[in-house]
């Protein structure tokens, strides 16, 4: 039954191939929201929002079985369909106006086609993580990349977790627990201040602080690898105070193991 449901999901996803081409550029990396992004997202949400309904049925049926899950998934899917259509219309209408600071899409995933992408086990975990407030989640080379741009940053030369960081890590741990067949890479970064060796050591300390906290919350240490990368791969301009703060961060890469792929 599960295999039939999976085949159905692939068939339904085929309906969105035309729109998927429009969304691919925004889904390939961390989104930078522009008026064009809002317009594209609004059009695609209105045109393909109905895919929320079969997606809800398929996801819930895979989780709880067809007889129990399908009715729940249908109700959930219809509700998400209505919300996606309304938010799509809103984004389409407001696209020409200035985008406020801190803007983020209302619906997750950002594009409805992501409901049908890739490994269903990893796709379910992606949707669980996306429910966490402030989480940015996207696909990169077969893995999930998870970032909390406003909550998992560090003070200058510090590896101490803030209350905002621990609050998000609590929720992340709960989202990760139901999916034991994934591995989590905790990736620490620094800004460009200081020597390279110091930055690598500091970013390693930040990754290890997150590693230790996740283990305390019940994630097996065997699922996690912590690595420090120093000041490479900045997400903001290191010439400004705000940019350096954004670069002092920890990200996550979640990848399905062979066990999950065999399900």
In angstroms, what is the radius of gyration? 19 Å
Mean pLDDT: 82
Number of spatially distinct domains:
2
Strands ordered across the widest β-sheet:
1-2-5-3-4
CATH architecture of the largest domain: 2-Layer Sandwich
CATH topology annotation of the largest domain: 60s Ribosomal Protein L30, Chain: A
Reading off the top of the CATH hierarchy, the class of the largest domain is best stated as: Alpha Beta
* CATH homologous superfamily designation of the largest domain: OmpA-like domain
Report the sheet-strand fraction. 5-15%
Approximate shape: globular
The secondary-structure element order is HHHHHHEEHEHEHEH
> Number of helical runs?
10
Structural class: alpha+beta
Q: Please provide the count of β strands.
A: 5
Instruction: Tell me the distance between the termini.
Output: 13 Å
Taking pLDDT < 50 over at least 5 consecutive residues as the criterion, the unreliable ranges are 9-32
Give me a quick take on this structure.
The chain is of the alpha+beta class. It has helices at residues 2-13, 17-27, 35-48, 52-64, 66-94, 120-130, 163-176, 196-216, 241-247, 258-261, and strands at 136-140, 143-147, 182-188, 224-228, 250-256.
Can you offer a commentary on this structure?
With 263 residues, the chain is an alpha+beta fold. The chain folds into 2 domains: 1-117, no CATH class; 119-263, OmpA-like domain (60s Ribosomal Protein L30, Chain: A), CATH 3.30.1330. The protein contains 10 helices and 5 strands. The chain has a 5-stranded mixed sheet with strand order 1-2-5-3-4. The model is unreliable at 9-32 (pLDDT under 50).
């Amino acid at each position: 039954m599960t295999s039939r449901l999976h085949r159905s999901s692939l068939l339904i996803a085929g309906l969105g191939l035309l729109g998927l081409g429009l969304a691919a550029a925004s889904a390939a990396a961390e989104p930078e929201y522009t008026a064009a992004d809002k317009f594209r997202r609004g059009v695609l949400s209105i045109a393909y929002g109905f895919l929320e309904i079969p997606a809800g049925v398929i996801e819930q049926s895979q989780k709880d079985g067809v007889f129990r899950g399908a009715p729940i998934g249908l109700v959930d899917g219809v509700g998400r369909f209505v919300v996606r259509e309304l938010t799509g219309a809103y984004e389409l209408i407001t696209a020409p106006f200035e985008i406020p600071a801190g803007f983020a899409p209302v619906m997750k995933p950002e594009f409805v086609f992501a409901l049908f992408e890739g490994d269903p086990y990893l796709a379910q975990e992606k949707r669980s993580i996306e429910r966490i407030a402030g989480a940015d989640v996207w696909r990169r080379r077969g893995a999930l990349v998870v970032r909390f741009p406003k909550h998992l940053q560090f003070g200058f030369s510090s590896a101490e977790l803030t209350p905002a960081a621990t609050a998000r890590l609590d929720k992340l741990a709960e989202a990760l627990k139901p999916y034991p067949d994934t591995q989590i890479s905790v990736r620490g970064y620094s800004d460009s201040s200081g020597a390279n060796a110091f930055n690598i050591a500091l970013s390693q300390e930040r990754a290890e602080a997150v590693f230790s906290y996740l283990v305390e919350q019940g994630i097996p240490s065997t699922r996690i690898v912590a690595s420090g990368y120093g000041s490479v791969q900045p997400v903001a301009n290191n010439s400004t105070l705000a940019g350096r703060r954004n670069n002092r961060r920890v990200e996550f890469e979640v990848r399905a193991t062979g066990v999950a792929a065999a399900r």
